[in-house]
Each structure stands twice: as structure tokens, then as C-alpha cells.
Queue: 2 jobs
Job 1
Amino acid sequence: MTTLPLAIRLARRELRGGLKGFGVFLACLTLGVAAIASVGTLVAGVNEALKNDGQRLLGGDVELSFTHRPATAEQKRFIDDSGRVSTVIEMRAMARTDDRRTLIELKAVDGEYPLLGAVRLAGNPDLTAVFARRDGLPGAAAERTTLNRLGIGVGDRLSIGDATFVVRAVIENEPDRSANVLTLGPRVMIALGGLPATGLVQPGSLVRYQYRIMLADGIDPAGWIDGLKTRFPDAGWRIRSPSEAAPGVQRWIERIGLYLTLVGLTALLVGGVGVANAVASYLDGKTATIATLKCLGAPGHLVVQVYLVQIMVMAALGIGAGLALGALAPIVFGKLVASQLPVAAQVGFYPLPMAIAGAFGLLTALTFSLWPLARAREVPPAALFRSLVAPSRRWPRGAFVAGTAAAAGSLAALTVVTAADRPLAVSFVIGTLAAFALFRGAAWIIARLARSASHVRMPAMRLALANMHRPGSPTPGIVLSLGIGLTVLVMIALIQGNLARQIREQLPEIAPSFFFIDLQPDQTAAFDALMRDLPGVGEVKRVPALRGRIARIAGVPVEQANIAPDAQWAIGSDRGLTYASELPAGARIVAGQWWPADYSGPPLVSFDGHIAKGMGLGLGDTITINVLGREIEARIANLRAIDWTTLGINFTLIFAPGTLEGAPHTFIATAEVAPEHEDAVERAVTERFANVSSIRVKTALAAVETMLSGIAAAARVTAAVTLVAGTLVLAGAIIATQRRRIYDAVVLKVLGARRRAILGALVVEFALLGAAAVAVAAAIGSIAAYLLMTRYMHIDFVFLPLTVAGTALATVAVVVAVGLAGTWRALGHKPAPLLRNA
Amino acid sequence: MTSFPLQQAVTESESIVELANIHLKLTSAAGEVNILRGVDLRVARGERVAVIGPSGSGKSTMMMIVAGLERPTDGRVRVAGADLAGFDEDGLALFRRAHIGIVFQSFHLIAAMTALENVAVPLEFAGVDAPFERARAGLAAVGLDHRLDHYPAQLSGGEQQRVALARAFAMEPPLLLADEPTGNLDTTTGAAIIDLMFDLAERRRSTLVLITHDAELARRCDRIVRMHDGRILEAAAPAAAAGGRR
């Protein structure tokens, strides 16, 4: 006979009394599930927007793009025969007025642009009219930021290269532009026909030619792309379909989503400790009922069913509330975070992230409930004959151990299976297990220390210490939950602090002031001379630069090669190339030898050691680069360790002399300039060389910092959720010990203690507990931040004591405040009623 | 499901409780404590036995052993002809369900359930037909048919103990164990409860073993068992026990 219907009936009767005792349980589950569900919904919303708008963002069914050069006549004919084609050219350039200049993202479009959607313009809605030549001058459209930086308005003139344009409209929205994660300059849009007059398109200039194609009816894009590859196998173009319209954005949002989900999961796991405490506390309060049921003939499994049903009902309520909040959060907060998102998230109900968040909640509830439930199974019915029964500390029955292990294992599996970056998720699972073990150990040590120090003379201190180590003390739960929350917060604070320090303090010291790009070979001598003459200019470095795509790795086409995730970025787009006879200053060879200065022989290349490892390449292997449509196979002569964080000139690939000199290319230069001379130097260079663009490192760093601060804010909010979960656990633990504290306070009063002394003992207890948790969390958080920064992000780590101390002090204050708020009632209790009932 | 020889037990044994040389040692922080030191007791079917003795003499522990709530360190326990050593925890629960009703000093009603539900619980456990009808009849028998839907907190102490009595008798057990059933009640209410309990035991032909400090109550039983320091000092008819004590 199944006992489940009876168990459900009994559970329903017990639950009629309301949710009392389940407050912390519900809050912990709701919070964690809401965090995961809202991140999941937001990411799904962005992905949905990218998917739905893929064709619009791409600007057609297919986009073909080249760097440095346009399509050949034969290629263009093939494209033109396939449907409607729009040609777009993009490059970085300087926009100038008489007294100001700014770096811009220049976009030259043909009459077909845009094939899909429309450019939203303020001031003049018709793009053709905007570009039309009037009074001898062509028109342009620009973003508001461009106008602000140049101090001009619609109707004013701006110069780009050798040409002058009249701004006739303000760009409010481009259909094919997803907000880039990192942009250095605002947009200016001109007609394709107006580009030659600027003089910016020169051999080797960093220009991107894009051909967007709306295929004629009946042509299947995938089949067409296959045909294109067969017809032009070595074209060296980048082919994108709508599903890859914004791969960078998609990767970025998935990665950020994963980080935030993991932080949300941490909050849920921290809340899991609260779930376990709440279940244990609830069941402790039910000891008499359980014993009565057993006395009346209820077998153990029926008792377990009765309480498992109750716990699952509560879990369902908590998870349901969390999911509802998670579904609503993107709608409520979507506008607040919209500026941080590359595309506007599509508001909607997304079942998959909801199901995943719900599954996380359910598995967490099970993982943390089964163990205390096992104790209910063991409540002896004889408890009814004894006034006090010590809680069972026996190891639970095998079924409960297996059930807990299965639930925890499923939780880990779900974490890994649903993660975009599985190795990272595996690291998270291992790290979480290690953190639980570490904090459990730390709690044990804290309790031991409290016990060994418990013979101090001060009664308040003695009571405080005794409360930290006595049987049934909440120390382990509080140290674990608060500690993990704090670890995450300390880690994020330290990483953010270190990144900010790099960007604000270290990088400006070691990074150059300017990058100058697109210097033509015939301009280098004049550029060098100008820089020598300008006041305030320090070291100037100048190297040849061109771009190429990695086409084959050890002879295998990149699409078929097995490449590690952290090296994938190297094949996603064009890479910068240079050539050199001497080992560049600051370069560090980690394998192989630099070639002789007078080398002349088959192509040799110096490669980034980290990427080479990710591609499984070593010394002597070959790598094939498509440069300007021509494939160059070079043998790896040496590997370098590149420190990208210096923001100096670094190249993934450096060729030996004799290979690239003949290819059309430009030069890139860096210059250290005294801050007070930066304006003058920029003006002098861009006036003298209209085709040269200057990038101020300060501006770039500011853009990077803005981007990072957005990410950090999101991380802090989610980490704060973790800490809130920790605080809930703390509150729950204090509520659970309320009866004992009231009893202690009453007995102390009977013995003559004043309220102040009892209060003092409580403050000392919570301060010691908070300080102990903080000390352990600060240590573990700092080590984790150090490892992440030095091993994963390859950035120097500096311990920031003020950052950690601030976080620590705030936490101790919260612990004391929550602790006192929870126990204040204990102080006010009159001794008599309690003693009468004791 | 654990099975037990119910019919066999009922027909084969004249004694419903047989304790033979029962010892119980418990280990505490202070060391090993001998709670029971060789207790022998037989209780005949239909007999009413009072167990008296000072606090800590082992009365409640002996009752727990009879109820299968505690296992002796040594000795043999037979209840209704069944050797309790042969049952696991769940088997003991099923055995209690069928054979033993228990009444506590602190009532131990389930706070979340109404009076009716409290009485119905053992019937539901046993899977009997119409448990609520029978529970209603049981409550009527203790004079609480007007309090069916009240929760324990809404009942007086005496009413709570009546509900507890109705619950203990719900399965019409052959053996009723009562641990100081009037300990938490005033004298008048206590006397009424005792009258009711004796009456119910009589009508249902249940054997009654009750722990009490009340000499008057003990004298109403067929036999008084006096315990001290984990041993039975004497077990005699009330008159003899009273004489022995003097």
C-alpha cells in the first residue's frame, strides 16, 4: 500500500498553520532562483533579439568582407549576379573643424544601403538628400557625439582627410549596427562616391570593404555560400550569415551571462545553507509531533514522506516566486541596463532559462534538505517521555546519503551542461566544493579556538566564546554562508580594484600617449622629422603594419582545426602583421631563436606562444596567412610571450625580412607625449597628414573603463545578492537559536546580570563570529582573486588592503546589527513566565 | 512491510506483558548509568496496574520498553505474546498501532490538527474504513462531540487529555499505557479523566498500565508495582502494597 496519499494529507494538515518557520527557507530559494532566472531571461532576450534581427544587423542574407582591398572584378560580377548588393566601406579616420578634431568610425555607403530597415535620422530623413552635393559640398550624417566633440551642429562643416562635408542630419539609429562592446569613436556616414575625395583609401590603409547581399528569390544562402567557396577558394574574405551577424556580441553576452549566472548560483548555494538550517530548525520544532506520529504507529518512511512533501511544497513556492521575479526583472530593470547591452533585449517569456533556474532551485532544495530530513527519520518516539532529547548526530541512512549525493551531483551536472564555457563551469564546481570544505574546516578551527580560549575572566567574553563552540552552535552555518558570500565580494572588489588601478595608474605610466595609424610609407620620414621637432614628444616607435587572416594551421584549414577556446579569438577576424629584422625591444622569446638580421630565405614567422599552444603549434610547424588574397605559408621560427597589457605595439605574428615588404602596407606609430602637449601634437600630425588617424590612449582607456565599470556593476549587484543570501542565513541561524538565547538571558538575569552585560556578550559574540568569517573570507577571496588575475587574466595582482578592510568592516557591522536585531527580544524577557514553564 | 503474529499472540498468551530480567544501561557524558537493573513483571490481560515510585526510579523507562520505544540492554520483552526483539523500528511502529495505546502527561496532541484529525490519525495509519466516522464516535464517547474541529490550542487541559484518550483508544488496543495522565490537570479534572479512562478500558476490555504519583489513583488499580532505583521493590494488590509501605 502506498503511503504517499496519506503523507500528502498529513502534510496538508501541518501546512494549514501557515509558512511559519519557512521565512528564511523561502527567501533564500526565491533570491537565488530570481537571480539566475533574471540573468537567464535577459541573456535569452538579447540572444532572441540577435536572432530575430540577424538579417537586419548583417544588412542582408550574406555579408562578404575584405580588409585593405575591394573584391576583384570577377568576384564582384559573381556577387552582383546573385541578387541585390550593397557596398559599404568602413575605416577609422579623423574628423576636423578649424579648431577641433576627433577620431571617428567612418562609414561610406552606396545608394542601395540599407538593404533592410532604415537609417533613423534627425534633421533630414532622406539619406540620399543628406549625401547630395549642394553648394559644391557633399553632405554627411553624424552621431550626436561627433557633433558634440567637434562643437558643431547640423548645417556646419567638417573635414575628413582631404574632403569637406556639410553635416545635414544626426544619426539616431543604424539598422546594421549593434552597439559595440568597445568603440573608440562615434559614427560619421558619407556616400560611397564621396570617399575617394578624402584621400584616405590608400594602399595598405586599414579599410574594411563589405558587400551585403540579398539573394535573389529561390537561392538558398547556405548553398550559395558553398558555391562561393568552391568558386573562390582562396579569396581570403570573411563570409557571414545572419546567425553570425554579431558573433562578438553573442560571445560577450553569453560570457557575461555565464559569469552572472555562476554568481547567482553561488547566491543560491549560500542560500542552500539557509535552506538546510531552516529545514533542520523546522524539524527540530516538530520533534514532538514526529515522535507522536511514531508512537501512533507511523513508520519512518511515512514520517519522511510527510515532511518531504512539506519541504517540496515550500520549495515550489520559493522557486515559483523566484521565477516570477526573474521573469519580471528584465522588464523592470531592462531600461536601467539597456545602455550596458549591445542590443535591446527582446522582452518575453523564455521557458528554457526559467526551467533551468527552477531546476537549480529544486536541486538546491533537495541537496540541502535531505540531510536534515534524515534526522527526522531517526527521531525516537521515546522523545515524548524525555524533556530534552539531544539531536541525533548519527550519520544518516544510506538512502539519504545517496539521495543527497545524487541531488548534489545533478546540481553540478546541470551547472556544467548549461554553461557556455564548460571548463569554466567545471572549475566553478570544483571551486565551490573546495570553498565549502575550506569554510567547514575554518568553522571547525574557529570553534576549537573559541573553546581553547573560553576560560577568559570576563563573563561576557566567556559566554560569547561558549556560544561559538557549544553543541548546536550556529557557527558552522554562519561562517560557511557569510564566508562564501564575502569571498565572492572580496574577490570581485579586488579584481575590479586591480583593473581600475591598471587602467588609471599603471597603464597611463607605461602606455604611450598616442597611436597613429595609416601612415603611408612615403610619409614616414616626414612623420619622424615632425615628431622630432615637436615639443613634449618623448619616445616614438614606428613599425610596418598590415592585416591578414590565419587560413591554415599546419596545413589544416582553420575551420577544421582543433583550437582551444582561449585561442579562438585569433581566427575570428584579421590579425595585425608586421615584419622585423631585429628582435623588437621588450619582446621575450620563450622558444626558438630570432632570425639573423640579414635573413633571406623561405618565410619565417615569430608567433604568440600562448596562441600557438592553443592551436597545438610548435617550432618548425607551418602557419598560412591570407594577406590581400594571397596565401603565405611560413614556418614558425620562434615563440614569444606577449604582454598585451602594456598597450604598446604588439603583433601576434612578426615575419622575417623578405616576405611582406612588397605588399602594400602602412605604418603604425606610438608616441609618448607630455600631457600638456597632447593637443598640439595631435593637431600637428593630423593637419600635416590628413589620412592619418590618431588614437588617444587616454580616450581608449576611458572607454575600456566605462565598459568594465558596467560589467563590474553587474557583478557587484549579483555578488551583493550572494551577501544578502548570507545575511538571510545569518538571520535564520539567529532565529533558530532564539529560544536558547532567551533562556540564557533569563538565567543570567536571575543570577543578577544587567541588560548591558548581556548585550555586551551578544555584541562580542556576533563581532567575533563576523570577524572570524571575514578573516577567512578575506584570505580565500584574496587568493582566488590573485589566482584569477595572474593565471587566467595574466595581469599583475596587488593586494588592496583598504578595499578588503572596507568590505570586512561593513560585513562585521552587518553581522552585529542583524545579530542584535534578532536577539533584542531576548533582553526584554521577564524571567518569571519562562521559569514557571521551564 | 514487517509482519507480526497478531492472531497467534492474542490466542497463545494469558499475560499481555512479560518482562524478564530487563536491564538498561545508558551512556552519558558522566559515564554509564544503570536505569533498569533486572526488572521482572507480568501483567495479565484485563488487569489494571499502577506503577509508582520516586522520580528517576525507572517507571517511564520501563513503560517505554513495554511500548517498544526503548530497547533493553538485556532481558526479554513479550507483549501480547510477541517478542519485541524480533521487530525493527518500523515493525515496532506497526505493532504499537495494532496493540498499544499511549496517554501522556503532556497530552502530545498534534498542534496542527483538529481534535477529530488527531483521533483519526492512528485509524488512517492502519488504513481502516471511515476513519473520521470512527474518530467522531470516539470523541463522542469522551464527551467532545461538540469540539471536533477545535485545535489543541483552543481546548482546555482536560479537553486535550480527553482527545488524547479518544486517540489512544481509537484502535481499541488490548493494552493502554498511561504516563501520569493527570499530572498536568487540576484535581477535579484529573479525577474525571481517570474515571473516563477506567470506564473506557473496562468497556473495551483493555489492559491498563499507568504511572502515577497519586496514591488514591493507584489504589483504584488491581495491583500496584513499586519501583526504586531501577528495580521493582514489590508488586501487590493495593491493600497489601499500602500495608507494606507502612
Job 2
Amino acid sequence: MLYKNFFSRDIFSELERMQQELDRNLGLSPSIRGSSRGYPAMNIGTTPQSVEIYVFVPGMQPSEIDVELENGTLSVAGERKSTDAPQGATKHIQERFTGRFRRVISLPDDVDANQISAVCRDGVLHVRIARKEAMQPRRISVQ
Amino acid sequence: MNENVTKQEKPSEKTPPREEPTLQALVEVIEDASGITLLADLPGVPRESLDIHMDGETLTLVGTLGLTMPEAMESAHAEVTLPRYRRVFSLSKELDSTKIQAEFQHGVLKLRIPKAEHAQTKKIQVQAA
């Protein structure tokens, strides 16, 4: 029964979980402000016109997230509250992050601090910062 | 906000083959006297891309990311690198899989799986002799 349960799970997810546990136990942490698997996870992309930042903040209300742009850095901070278990209830698994978080990234020099938008949908905060027009590559037509 | 989970004999088409690597949705499982509450973090999954199904005693959660990204975007840094979340649980017999309730808000799925009536904990009063 024990074996059946183990193999009925997705082996890749299982390996991912084991890797996470290993990292945690060994204290491996590539960044001073938490490992890359910390909360919230972040994806960053660039286009010629903008910098696109996706912050994975499941369970956060848009009003509970603080987004600040200061001196070329963008910080995203907030607090995710733990769920209240009713009296006499048992928590069998607790993998979800709770508590305060803060992530800071430095932005490229050419971003325009006046043109920034932040939208939160389905638990993902999407921050878009435009790049200054003067810095954008321009095609110069030869007469 | 509430929707009943469809009971299916076969995994639906939205379910990827088991071999595909997927993201591990992080969960929290709380059991009380009348059932189990399961919370799963599925950020970036729109409601229509979430698939919850029961196959026998196996509960499978699959969610596909639906982020809107500009076409010309080049990735500079990525921590979420796979397009799909997947998580599978074996339910025990005393849970009533026909009465699962699901709520999905801000990327967090909340499932309530009640215990079958006969399996609910009953408090027995001890009478003084």
C-alpha cells in the first residue's frame, strides 16, 4: 500500500519536492534575500519598449501588496496571513508560505519611472515599466 | 463562487500525460471532524484553465498558466519555468468525493471534501454513574 501510494504520484513533482527539501536542509540559498524558490516567485522579461515583471503572489488581495519604485529599484512587499484552522483540526500538510515578504530588484538605467503600471490577476502581479524613448533603438533612414 | 467538481471516469483532455514535468502546486491540508480542507497555490491560472477531477479515489488538480506576455518579450530571469501545475492525491474511503466544493480566488484553490455521514466523528457523552 505504501509503495502504491508513492508511485501513484507524479514522479517529477516528487523529485521537485525532494530537491526543495534538500535545498532547505542544506541551507542552499543563491540570494541573500531568500532562495529562488521563495515566496513570491518572480519572472522578468524585457521588450525594446518595456520591462515586464511578473510576481507570483497567490492569495494576496491587490490592496495588500506594496509596490515601490525608488532609485532605480523596484520592491514588492506584503504579508500573507496564515489560514485559521478550526479548533481541534489537524494540519496534515503545510507547504504554503505565510508571513511577511519583500523582494527587491534593480532596474535597467533606461526605465521611465513615470510610466509604470501594476495589475494583479489570478494571483500574479504584473508590473510594466516603460523604457525611455530616447534610449530605444531607432532606425535612421539613409538619404 | 462555488462549483461542484465533476466526477469523471477518464482524465479529461486538459490533463497532460503523466510524463510531462510540471510545477508542484504548494498545498495546505487541514482535517476537522466533518471533512478535509485543501488549499493549493496556483498563481497565474485562470479559472477556465483549472481542471479538478476524481478518478476512483484519486484526486487530480491540473492548472495551466495563462499569463499575458508581450510577443516581443525576451526572458531575463525566470523562476516559474514550466507551463503547468499538477498535483495528485489519494483520498481515503471515508471521504465523500461526490460532495466536493471548490472555490478559486486570487490564484488559491480551496477544496472542501466532506467525510461521509457514517465516518464523521461523533462525540460520546460520558455519563456519571
